[in-house]
TrEMBL record:
SMART domains, alphabetized: PKS_ER (SM00829)
Organism this protein belongs to: Nonomuraea rubra
Protein's recorded name: NADPH:quinone reductase-like Zn-dependent oxidoreductase
Classification via Pfam families: ADH_N, ADH_zinc_N_2
Transcription regulation among keywords: no
SUPFAM superfamilies linked: GroES-like, NAD(P)-binding Rossmann-fold domains
GO molecular function: NADPH binding; oxidoreductase activity, acting on NAD(P)H
InterPro entries: ADH-like_N, ER, GroES-like_sf, NAD(P)-bd_dom_sf
Length: 303
C-alpha cells in the first residue's frame, strides 16, 4: 500500500499492508488530520517503513476477527499512536467510533487527538460552571475544541490568541473574552488549559486564583518555561501546574464528540484541506502557525 513516512523527510513509500490482530478492524482510510505534536516532536530516528499518524477516518473493510467493533462497510473515525498516514489502517476496536452518514469523514478525522485531549482536560479541571477558565493557543486545534467544551460545561471562557486575526470566530464558539496573550489578562482565573507552554504558561500561572490549576497540555512555543515562584503579588497562594496527558482508549470519548458534531453542537474548524499529496506543504503550514484549526488531508488510493 501507499503511505507517508519520514524517510527522512515526509514522502511517499510503498509499505506492506497492515495485518490486523484479532481485536483490530482493517480500515480503508479516507482522510487523516495532522497534529502539531506528531510533526514538531517526531523522533529523529524513524524506522524504515514505519507509518506515522494518529488520527484517521474511513470505512471498515475487514471487521475484527474477535467479533468486537463494527461490520464491514461502516464509516468510522480512528485513533492510534501510529499508522494513520496510509491507505489502510489496522486499529483496535476500542479506539474507534462509528460516524453517521451525515458527518463528513474529513471533519471526523479532525476529532481524535485534538478533540479528546480538550474533552479530557476540561473534565480534569473539575466543576467549572461559573468559573473563569483561560484557554491559551485558543485558535489552534486543541484550543478551539477547549473553548467550546469549557463553555458547554458552564465556564466563563477567556480565549488567548496570538493576534486579533487568529482570534476571529472564537466568541461564536463560546469565548466570553478575548486576550492577545495571557499577559494581557485582567483579573484571576480558576483554571488554565495551556496549549502553548514557554513564557505563556508562566504568565498564566501568575494569574491563578488560590487553589487554581494550570493544565499543561501542549508545547507549541517550543520554549522552556521559567517561573518565579517568589514574584510578589502576582501568584496564587496554592495554585498548581499539572502535566496533562491524554489517556486511551479513545472510543467512548470519540463517540461523544461525533455525536456533538452530528447534532451541530460542535464546530470543527478545518483551516487547511487538500489531497495527501500536499502533506509536506500542510506540515510546513502547521509548524509555522499558518493554520487556524485543523489540517486535514484526503487520501486517494492508487489505482
Amino acid at each position: 500500500m501507499r503511505a507517508l513516512t519520514f524517510t527522512p523527510d515526509l514522502s511517499f513509500e510503498t509499505v506492506p499492508d497492515p495485518v490486523p490482530a484479532p481485536s483490530q478492524a482493517l480500515v480503508q482510510v479516507s482522510a487523516f488530520s495532522l497534529n502539531f505534536g506528531e510533526i514538531a516532536f517526531r523522533s529523529p530516528d524513524a524506522r524504515p517503513g514505519h507509518v506515522p499518524g494518529w488520527d484517521a477516518a474511513g470505512v471498515v473493510v475487514q471487521p475484527a476477527a474477535d467479533g468486537s467493533g463494527p461490520a464491514a462497510g461502516t464509516r468510522v473515525v480512528t485513533f492510534g499512536w501510529s499508522g494513520a498516514w496510509a491507505e489502510l489502517r489496522a486499529v483496535d476496536t476500542a479506539e474507534l467510533a462509528v460516524v453517521p452518514g451525515t458527518v463528513d469523514l474529513g471533519q471526523a478525522a479532525a476529532l481524535p487527538v485534538a478533540g479528546v485531549t480538550a474533552l479530557q482536560a476540561v473534565r480534569r479541571l473539575g466543576p467549572v460552571a461559573g468559573r473563569r477558565v483561560l484557554v491559551t493557543g485558543a485558535s489552534g486545534g486543541v484550543g478551539r475544541f477547549a473553548v467550546q467544551l469549557a463553555a458547554r460545561a458552564g465556564a466563563h471562557v477567556i480565549a488567548s490568541a496570538g493576534s486579533p486575526a487568529r482570534a476571529a470566530g472564537l466568541p461564536e464558539l463560546g469565548a466570553a473574552e478575548i486576550v492577545i496573550g495571557p499577559e494581557n489578562l485582567r483579573g484571576r482565573v480558576y483554571g488554565v488549559l495551556d496549549n502553548v507552554g514557554g513564557p505563556q504558561l508562566a504568565q498564566a500561572f501568575y494569574r491563578l486564583e488560590d487553589d487554581g490549576v494550570v493544565m499543561a497540555i501542549g508545547r507549541a512555543a517550543r520554549e522552556a518555561t521559567v517561573i518565579d515562584f517568589e514574584l510578589a503579588g502576582t501568584r496564587s497562594a496554592r495554585g498548581r501546574i499539572e502535566n496533562f496527558n491524554v489517556t486511551a482508549p479513545f472510543g467512548a470519548d470519540l463517540a461523544h464528540l461525533v455525536g456533538l458534531l452530528a447534532d451541530g453542537e460542535l464546530d470543527v474548524r478545518v483551516g487547511l484541506r487538500g489531497p495527501w499529496d500536499r502533506a509536506r506543504e500542510a506540515a510546513e503550514a502547521l509548524l509555522s502557525r499558518r493554520v487556524a484549526g485543523k489540517a486535514v488531508l484526503d487520501v486517494r488510493r492508487a489505482s
